[in-house]
Amino acid sequence: MIELRKLVKHVGLILLALVMLYPVLWMVVSSLRPDNEIFRRPGLILDGLQVQNYGTGWTALVSPFGHYLLNSAILVLACIIGNLASCSMAAYAFARLDFTGKRLWFAIMLGTIMLPIHVIIVPQYIMFSQLDWVNTFLPLVVPKFLATDAFFVFLMVQFIRGLPRELDEAARIDGCGHARIFLRIILPLMLPALATTVIFTFIWTWNDFFSQLIYLTDPEMYTVPVALRSFVDATVSTSWGSMFAMSVVSLAPVFLAFLVGQRYLIRGIATTGGK
């Protein structure tokens, strides 16, 4: 009876996984179909391979699609460095330092998590426009160096609070100040939380469409999400096969990042959630 329950549970999980994966599989299959068959056939069976969609999509826009992949890679790398540097220092301050209004500022920081981007995008755009930063990566990168991602600050605060304070005290006896304690003791022990920050920052920045659409108007500055939007044109027929082909290409780094970092991702979330 127990074996039957396990069998039913596993079959149910497999069916649920197939339902969730169907849109992705359909996109991959559609990238290998001619445009006139994509929306006529919802199934996953191919009669032939239209691999030309990948070559056509790669050169369909103003620049080769590799140019937009490079723009996204530069933006993602800068955002990762910014989040790692600023959020880790802010987290150390909240977890280990005592200063006036610490609880109040921590509560305000947590409150910013509930603010949707649509609430602050207008004043942000006005400010960055006055700084002449529109159509550059600066509006997307500079805030990351100011610890604006409260989720990662909270994640690291919870992790640091779980580290024994005896480590800090022993280092302080040896003459270490806060800078050396942070760099030589706390930071190396934060690897799971830092890896979680890297993976989430990579995925969220790589897939971010709204902010990049607002600030990047020059086609030479387009990132992958904005470039994919350029395939859809209301004035001419859309090359769906090419768009799906480049969508598959753009998803490959995300899948690779998750597969490589899932061990650290699970460990980082697990070790911060229980503190």
Automatic annotation (TrEMBL):
BP terms from Gene Ontology: transmembrane transport
InterPro entries in alphabetical order: MetI-like, MetI-like_sf
Main location: membrane
Native source species: Nonomuraea phyllanthi
TM annotation in the entry: 7-29, 68-92, 104-126, 138-160, 181-206, 240-260
Organism lineage string: Bacteria, Bacillati, Actinomycetota, Actinomycetes, Streptosporangiales
Domain of life: Bacteria
Protein name per Swiss-Prot or TrEMBL: ABC transporter permease subunit
Keywords in alphabetical order: Cell membrane, Membrane, Transmembrane, Transmembrane helix, Transport
GO CC annotation: plasma membrane
Subcellular location: Cell membrane
Family listed: Belongs to the binding-protein-dependent transport system permease family.
Protein's membrane topology: Multi-pass membrane protein
